[in-house]
Amino acid sequence: MSVATPLLDRHPCSLDNSSVLHGYLLGQQRGLAPGQRCLWSFTENLGKIDPLAVFGALNVQDQVHFYGENPQRGETILAFGICQSLRISGKYRFRLAQQFAEDCFQRLVPIGNAQGRSQRPYIFCGFSFFDRSSNRNPFANSFLFLPQIQVVKTSQHCLLSWQVSLDSNTDIIDLVDFIGAMLSAIRRVQPARDNHTAPMLARAPRLTAIEVAKLSTAIASSLEEIAQQRLSKVVLATALDLDYGCRFNTAHCLQRLRQQYGDCHLFSWGNGQGDCFVGASPERLLSLHNQQLVTDALAGSAPRAADVQGDRQLGQQLLHNPKELREHQAVLDYLLQRLRALGLSPQASSLKLLKLANIQHLWTQIQAPLPPHIHPLALVEQLHPTPAVAGVPVAIAEDLIRRHETFDRNLYAAPLGWLDSEGNSEFIVGIRSALLSRNRARLYAGAGIVAGSDPLKEVAEIELKLQTLWRSLI
Ligand SMILES: C=C(O[C@H]1C=CC=C(C(=O)O)[C@@H]1O)C(=O)O
């Protein structure tokens, strides 16, 4: 898939030079027909700035934002402010989202900086787990935005892109002043300090006896349905609400997640009203670069041990445990089948262990070349929700989830990510996550239930997964 990008306007127009920028935008505005709106994307080099330090210094947590760290690609992304956005729900949400993205990319004119660099702007997407859910949720069912400001840091550089939407009514003086002030604030940002280490809650949170009883009942009833062969797998989750006694600082949370789970995909998704959905997800729904697709089958879990030998033993037991292997195989089979249904030829790597700070998983990586006519969002639609977070068959598992879970998943286990105009895309699955609202945190975790699952062990696994976030929150 490649969307036709308008001819690159090679005019290097520095955002730092207000009078040149003002003259340039004014000239462009004069050329607009009445009612016409144009989109430009300007690129600037930021040198060695850490996007997380920008997040903290500019208090991005209260704005609509996406923050993501990708350990495989060594890439950190911060995007905030809205240039264009779309809010949708229902079963056609992925197709409507695709139209929105194509329309934005078609209209967007990229303008490089003085060094001839231009950073492609991304469209950021947050799709809730279910295609319809209550309006009371803090996050829209499906929300896409082309950010006003995007900062992308790789090992080579840190580039900022500023998206400007212009019509004949835009006040260019105000706009240029705002850009100048923001840019100098960003350039002044100092590196973040890494000393936010003290958790306020001394003891790990536990589920209450009532919550454990509810979860055990749901697991037992799922096992009955599995025994009756209505389904072969379901992933049941719980939400744990905690009051931390003071307002969260999302940048500090991300800082600690970075220290503890640097090998995971860190993320924060903000709704602009003070709610942030944050996490350290080990699971990639898709990574798509230069028409090469990578996706992860990740399911089957065991704790880590403090000593090397004990840990290796737990890993070996996990690799040979028939119940854990069944859980994993359900995800692998589903992903391969869904990709083949799109006409792809996926290749699965050998089964491996993915060892994270507090837990280890069974992991198989799947790769496939992707023909250009398949849009990244068509892939998201095809793959979500995988049996790592829903079950097999999907519709029956979803029905069971709705009947047994007492909270709305909203963004938990949902696809979050971005796409660009060249068909590149990254989506993670929003697990090992928490919803932060003022001083309250809702932590989420789930576990796959298959024939042979032991309700007590599944509850213990969920409690272990809940630990991922609570330590990093304050
Ligand atoms: C649903 C979650 O994890 C999934 C991903 C990896 C391993 C899983 C498992 O072993 O059950 C789950 O399928 C969660 O962390 O909330």
TrEMBL record:
Gene3D superfamilies, sorted: Anthranilate synthase
Alphabetized UniProt keyword annotations: Isomerase
SUPFAM superfamilies for this protein: ADC synthase (SSF56322)
Start and end residues of each Chorismate-utilising enzyme C-terminal domain: 217-465
Keyword Glycoprotein: no
InterPro entries: ADC_synthase, Chorismate_C, IsoChor_synthase
Family the entry assigns: Belongs to the isochorismate synthase family.
Name assigned to this protein: isochorismate synthase
Species in which this protein is naturally found: Synechocystis salina LEGE 00031
